[in-house]
Write a structure and sequence with these properties.
Length: about 325
C-alpha cells in the first residue's frame, strides 16, 4: 500500500511531464505504424509530391487541432465568448491563444521530427519535386529526372539514380535533427525568459501550483456533492408532488465571474479567479479586468484545469 501511495504521489507531482512524455511516445509510435503499414509511395511524377506532403503535414495539422480541443483553457476562453464579445477582443485573449498554440504544437512537432528521421515521407515527396530533382540529378544520367520518382520504390534503372535514395534519406534525417535541436533551444529560451520575467519567486510558484491543484480537487468534490443534493431534492419533490426546500446555488453571473481568464495583479495577489471572486469588496462588483491586471505566462497553469480534467464536447 505504501508503495502504491509513493507511485501515486510521484505521478501527481510530475503529472504534466508524464503527460507530455506519453503524448510524445504515442505520436512517435503512431508515425512508425503509419510509415510501415499505411504509407505506400505511388512512385509517380504527378503523385509523389502531394502524397508525401499529405502524410507529412496533414497528421501534424490534425494533432495540432486536437491539442486545442483537449485543452481545458481553450473551452474556458471560448465558452460564452460570443455573449461577451468585448472580453474576447482583449489583448490578453491573444496571449492566451499564443500559449495554447505553443502547448498544442508538441504533438505535431513530434510527428514531424519522427517522420523526418524515418525518411519515408520526405523521400517520396522530394522525389516528385521537379525543382529539387534538377538539383539532385546534377551531372548524372540524362534520364535521372524522369527516373527519380521511381527511386523510393527501388525501381530506378541506372544505379547512380537509385543511389539518390541514400541522399534523400540523409537530407530527411538532417532536417529532423535540426527540427529537434531548434525546438529544444526555443523551448529552453522561452522557459528561461518566462521564469526570468516571473513576478513571483520560485518557492511561491511551487506553493501556487499546490494551491491550484487542491482548489480544483475540492471544487470538483463540492460541486459533485452540491449537484447530487440538488438532484435528490428535485427528484423527491417530483415523485411526492411537493414544493422543494430553498436551495441556494450560484447565479449565472457568479459562474461567469469564476469562469473568466485569470489575470495577475501585484496589488492583490490572488491565487485563482475563484480566490479573487470570494475576496471582492462588494458582491455587485465585477472581478474582470481592473487596472494593473495582466496575463503572466508562468502562471498559465492556473487556467489549465477545471472541474473536469477533460472538456466534454
Amino acid at each position: 500500500m505504501d508503495k502504491f501511495k509513493t507511485v501515486l504521489d510521484l505521478y501527481l507531482k510530475h503529472r504534466s511531464a508524464l503527460g507530455y512524455g506519453l503524448v510524445t511516445l504515442l505520436t512517435a509510435g503512431g508515425e512508425k505504424i503509419f510509415s510501415a503499414v499505411v504509407f505506400q509511395c505511388p512512385c509517380s511524377a504527378a503523385w509523389n509530391l502531394p502524397y508525401g506532403l499529405v502524410f507529412l503535414l496533414v497528421p501534424a495539422l490534425a494533432l495540432f487541432l486536437l491539442g486545442y480541443v483537449l485543452s481545458a483553457r481553450t473551452w474556458r476562453l471560448l465558452t460564452g465568448c460570443c455573449e461577451r464579445a468585448r472580453g474576447c477582443a482583449r489583448p490578453r485573449g491573444a496571449l492566451v491563444c499564443a500559449q495554447l498554440s505553443a502547448a498544442a504544437a508538441l504533438a505535431p512537432l513530434t510527428w514531424l521530427a519522427a517522420a523526418l528521421l524515418g525518411g519515408s515521407f520526405y523521400e517520396c515527396a522530394a522525389s516528385g519535386s521537379a525543382a529539387l530533382g534538377l538539383w539532385l540529378c546534377g551531372d548524372r544520367d540524362s534520364s535521372c529526372p524522369a527516373q527519380l520518382p521511381l527511386v523510393p520504390c527501388g525501381q530506378a534503372t541506372p544505379p547512380t539514380v537509385q543511389d539518390l535514395l541514400k541522399e534523400l534519406k540523409a537530407q530527411s534525417q538532417v532536417l529532423g535533427w535540426v527540427l529537434i535541436a531548434g525546438v529544444i533551444i526555443l523551448l529552453l529560451i522561452c522557459t528561461s525568459v518566462t521564469r526570468c520575467l516571473s513576478p513571483i519567486s520560485y518557492l511561491q510558484l511551487k506553493f501556487w501550483k499546490i494551491y491550484s491543484e487542491k482548489e480544483q480537487q475540492i471544487l470538483k468534490s463540492q460541486a459533485t456533492e452540491h449537484a447530487t443534493e440538488l438532484a435528490k431534492e428535485n427528484i423527491k419533490c417530483f415523485f411526492e408532488g411537493s414544493r422543494p426546500n430553498e436551495y441556494s446555488t450560484p447565479s449565472i453571473k457568479d459562474w461567469q465571474q469564476i469562469s473568466s481568464l485569470y489575470t495577475f495583479n501585484p496589488k492583490d495577489q490572488y491565487y485563482s479567479i475563484l480566490h479573487k471572486y470570494v475576496n471582492r469588496k462588494e458582491k455587485s462588483n465585477s472581478i474582470r479586468s481592473v487596472e494593473g491586471d495582466s496575463v503572466i505566462p508562468v502562471l498559465g497553469f492556473v487556467d489549465s484545469s477545471g472541474i473536469s480534467s477533460a472538456p466534454e464536447l
